[in-house]
Amino acid sequence: MFKEKSVLSKLILPILMILLLSIAGCGSKSNDAGSSLKGSTTPTPKSTSQNAKPGNSTTTEAKAGLITYENYLKINLDTTYDDVKSILGEGKKKEMKTDVVDYTWAEKGKTILVQTNKGRVVTKIQSDLGKTTPKLTLDQFNQIATGMTIDQLVSILGPDYQEVSYKKSANVILRNVVWMLPDSTLIKVYLRDGKAINKNNTLKK
Fold this sequence. Notes:
Layout: H1 2-39, H2 48-51, H3 69-74, H4 81-88, E1 92-97, E2 100-107, E3 110-117, E4 120-127, H5 138-143, H6 150-157, E5 162-169, E6 172-180, E7 186-192, E8 195-201
Antiparallel strand pairs: 1-2, 2-3, 3-4, 4-5, 5-6, 6-7, 7-8
């Protein structure tokens, strides 16, 4: 009996030692793992704004200083949008109907509109560009007659006029010109194929 107990004690002690060592080893590994996680740093992903490349914006704005009466006059009928873009830069596009597209340039209240039909310029319109004239009278307005040319109009109203629109429609050229005072009162004349066909005014009586 005593011998059997001594044999069992001899077997149990080594087994207990092995178990204790294995438990101690697992604990040290878990501590090592924890310390390695604490010491590590997770890379921070770059924001989309950092990755974004400059110049990818789709917003279109008129370039400063290009919306002028001089540049308006450079636009010719029957040219292409690319020809106009070489003068004014990129315009704001608006499709009106089949084959007809409007392009607009605006800056501080000044505007230029160009309309194309089948890719060719057929209309140009400007607003708040050009020069004013120092003097206009109702007597001058009354002298304007149907059939007058632009040169005849200039001889009555003076050289300080501005073209506000120029349009080709069914092979007819329609042109509107104004003589405007600094207070925005004006005389407007409508021409068809270079001859006056109508007139109106906002002069103070």
